[in-house]
Design brief:
Number of domains: 1
Strand order of the largest sheet: 1-2
Distance between the termini: 28 Å
Order of helices and strands: HHHHHHEEHHHHHHHHHH
CATH class: Mainly Alpha
Length: 350
């Protein structure tokens, strides 16, 4: 469990370290980071397409649809950069990256079913097109496919990391569901949920990349910690993005508010407010009003108690600590790319 001291206000020293580390490469793009491992990613695309091929007609249609709408490949990128930091990517690295991508895809499909979401990354979700039964079965198939891929390649140590990530992510999802029903969550509970739901997978990426090139256990653990800290910063940034106003439409995101999810900016404000004001905001959160007025009322409350700034400080603190975990490793191209990756995570706008 994340200890209380791990999510106190980021110290001035840690934020200064963070700003200094990012001074020469602020606002790195994911495309710039990809260039460091462009050959590996090109080869991985072909390998992953082959892994995902099946002779079952409906399954093949669904999987091809998934492949066409793949995202930024942040997780395979992290696997390959972690491997390159410590050695040369090999067959084990490609297996690890495929396992991660399969796991991530399966969890997104299952999340859409749980959330009854009809859209993912601007496209129809699997459950929207083929209904929940098919979506659940495809997600189950992918998890089984990942397990078989690891066994067929005798990647038992990487499989151990993979299985632990599946367990942690499932526990995190169940914790979130339990807390969302009662519309009550403490800061420590929030950090435990995002550690399990989000940070565990990025931790698996960085540790499996190191494991794939034969790193000793001590190095694997440091890379695991790096990924966990990066994952915590990543999720806080996601939460902050939900409070932004779309520059094109002028409309707020506000998905978490509509779905009654309590994230760090709001949790902090609720903990700092008086009972009557807290109850008023919780009533607003609990009603079915989907207008922007609801969003602006909650945002005004959050700003009154510096919830946004507090969350930003937490995010910067975790990013700074993630960078510290890399200290002492080879200062090669992968090292610089991983620092840029941290920079990208906390400065992205979507």
């Amino acid at each position: 469990m994340v200890q209380k001291h791990e999510h106190q206000n980021a110290s001035i020293t840690s934020i200064k370290l963070l700003n200094l580390a990012f001074k020469t490469h602020r606002m790195s793009s994911i495309d710039q980071i990809r260039q460091h491992i462009s050959d590996e990613l090109k080869q991985f695309d072909g390998y992953f397409n082959q892994v995902m091929d099946t002779r079952v007609p409906l399954l093949n249609i669904v999987l091809k649809y998934l492949l066409k709408r793949k995202g930024k490949q942040m997780r395979p990128i992290l696997v390959f950069l972690s491997a390159r930091l410590h050695g040369t990517p090999n067959d084990s690295t490609y297996t690890a990256a495929a396992l991660i991508e399969i796991l991530h895809t399966a969890t997104l499909i299952h999340d859409d079913v749980v959330d009854e979401s009809n859209e993912r990354r601007g496209f129809f979700s699997i459950n929207a097109l083929w209904k929940s039964k098919v979506a659940v079965l495809v997600g189950d198939y992918l998890l089984a496919k990942g397990l078989l891929l690891a066994v067929e390649n005798k990647e038992y140590e990487i499989l151990d990391l993979f299985a632990d990530a599946v367990k942690e992510m499932s526990e995190g999802e169940l914790l979130q569901i339990r807390n969302s029903r009662k519309l009550k969550i403490s800061e420590s509970e929030y950090f435990e949920i995002i550690r399990k739901k989000t940070a565990t997978l990025l931790s698996c990426c960085s540790s499996s990349g190191a494991k794939s090139v034969g790193c000793p256990d001590e190095t694997v653990k440091k890379m695991q910690k790096f990924g966990e800290l990066l994952g915590l910063a990543f999720q806080i940034k996601d939460d902050l993005l939900d409070y932004q106003i779309n520059s094109l439409t002028g409309k707020p995101a506000g998905n978490d508010i509509q779905e009654k999810k309590l994230t760090l900016p709001l949790i902090h404000a609720l903990e700092k407010s008086g009972i009557s004001e807290r109850n008023r905001i919780l009533r607003i959160m609990n009603n079915s009003d989907r207008s922007s007025r609801k969003f602006h009322e909650v945002l005004g409350f959050i700003n009154k108690f510096d919830g946004i700034r507090y969350a930003e400080d937490q995010m910067n603190g975790y990013a700074s600590r993630a960078l510290q975990e890399l200290e002492g490793f080879n200062s090669n191209n992968a090292y610089g790319a991983l620092k840029s990756f941290v920079d990208y995570v906390i400065h992205r706008n979507k």
